[in-house]
Amino acid sequence: MNHLSGINLILALGLFFCFISSAEAADPLALDDGDVNLSELRAFDLLGRCETGSIVNTVSLSSTGNYLAAGGFDHKVYYYDSRGTQLWNYTTGDIVYTVSISSDGSRIAAGSNDRKVYFFNREGELLWSRKTGGNINSVAVSSEGLYIATGGEDGKVYFLDKDGKLLWSFNSGDAVRSVAISRDGDYVATGSANNYVYLLDSEGKTLWGKKTGSLINSVTMTPNAYYVAAGGSNYNVYLFDRKGEFSWMHNPGYWVSSVSLSSNGSHLAAGSFDDRIYLFNLTGAKLWDYQVKDDVYAVEIAPDSSFIAAGSWDDSIYALNMSGKELWNCSCGGNINSLDVSRDSSTIAAGSEAGAVYIFKRNATAFALLSGDASFLPEEPVKTEDSSLEENIQPVEETPVDTGGIENLVEDAAASSGDKKENIKTGGKLGMEELPSEKSSSSIFGIFDSIKFPLALLIGSMAGTVFFLKRRLTKRQEMDENTEDFENLEESDT
């Protein structure tokens, strides 16, 4: 009996461990280190390396990454599909420093040092070109390709429609280094070498202009222009709301080359020539910084806020999560001058001084494992690339701020710009952002569904064991009683 009980105990323990294993298997991200080596996973796969033979200055992706425009030192505008196949190229009169593509990839704008803005369709047909008064530093196309904003060395911002008609121009008084346009084309932000950041509407009206402490290298805005951010050569990052009210500025410690806002304005990323990537929240608090091996020249927060992409002059592209952890990096053999992330956050493109354009596609399974979030596991693919990708992104609620005089704050910051200590100045109290809740990789109900069969088997086995032991005990008692009767009968016979 003891031997049989031991066998049944072992059986019960085995079923119990089966139960535990099934509970762990309920979470698709509960990994066995012996099966998956996270260090070998690649969050992004290389789709194509497109040779141009010359330094690539600029890249721009369509909303789902199906099309890519690029431009470089060879005076050419290039157009590729998602596999890296060159569909066409066009030679301008000088170096191409800026390109921008519409959401569906049907319209492409480019700016050249021949002082011209060029506008193409997807087939590579030149629809029109317009001469300006100076080299073109920046160009931006609205989501549907209906409007084009551009700025250059003549100090002017030009706003044109899809037919090349000049709707208005704005004279900033000095070279325009960067322009940004809202998705619907209703707003244009610009940063100038005259130290000002401006916001204009689609009629050319100046909504506001704010003086900073230095020339502006980069401007960006949220899709509907609820927030505008800028980075300058006095080491400061600035954040404004649509009314032009100064929210905050921060001194990362060195020349700011690039800034990017999350879609809802809750986070601002900055790339700096101190070899660091910075992330700030809506209140201006620095959440973290991440050091690479050389100047950071380009940075962009993915529209779904799942990662931050950055390009460095250490020849590499980096992808970090919103907590500052590196998910992936890739060496591209030359300084990275430009990068872009598709609106669906599936694709990264980068232009390298090695004379090539690189296209990377997010590996959904590897990305989910590395980020620890099953919500990134593959779902139904996006079928088409059209305006259905437009999102109605609402602004983060905030308490109106009292600027207290931005120029005085800027002067204080400029005076202390050599100090690398953290320096945050805010115009007032801001409301914290409401971030989207993260999707849980498993639930109690999911676990129960996966363990209910082993659990039932375990309970049944234990019940069967008890019933079997009870039967054995009953039979043993009956045998003992029969033996006693038999012995008593033998004694009576003698």
What's this entry about, in short?
This protein is α+β, with helices and mostly antiparallel strands and 494 residues long. Helices cover 19% and strands 39% of the residues. The protein folds into 2 domains: 2-27 and 442-493; 43-426, 7 Propeller (Methylamine Dehydrogenase, Chain H).
Distance between the termini: 34 Å
- What's the architecture of the largest domain, going by CATH? 7 Propeller
Q: Work out the number of β strands.
A: 33
For the record, the count of structural domains works out to: 2
Content of β-strand: 35-45%
Radius of gyration: 32 Å
**Number of helical runs?**
4
Query: Regions with pLDDT < 50 over 5+ consecutive residues?
Result: 19-34, 384-448, 485-490
Overall geometry comes to globular
CATH topology description of the largest domain? Methylamine Dehydrogenase, Chain H
Please tell me about this protein's structure:
By secondary structure, the protein is an alpha+beta fold. It has 2 domains: 2-27 and 442-493; 43-426, Methylamine Dehydrogenase, Chain H, CATH 2.130.10.10. It is built from 4 helices and 33 strands. It has helices at 2-25, 364-371, 406-415, 444-493, and strands at residues 44-51, 56-61, 67-72, 76-81, 86-91, 96-101, 107-112, 116-121, 126-131, 136-141, 147-152, 156-161, 166-171, 176-181, 187-192, 196-201, 206-211, 216-221, 227-232, 237-241, 246-250, 256-261, 267-272, 276-281, 286-291, 296-301, 308-312, 316-320, 326-331, 336-341, 347-352, 356-362, 424-426. It has a 5-stranded antiparallel beta sheet with strand order 18-19-20-21-33, with helices on one face. Strand 22 (256-261) and strand 23 (267-272) form a beta hairpin. Helix 1 runs antiparallel to helix 4 (444-493). The radius of gyration is 32 Å and the shape is globular.
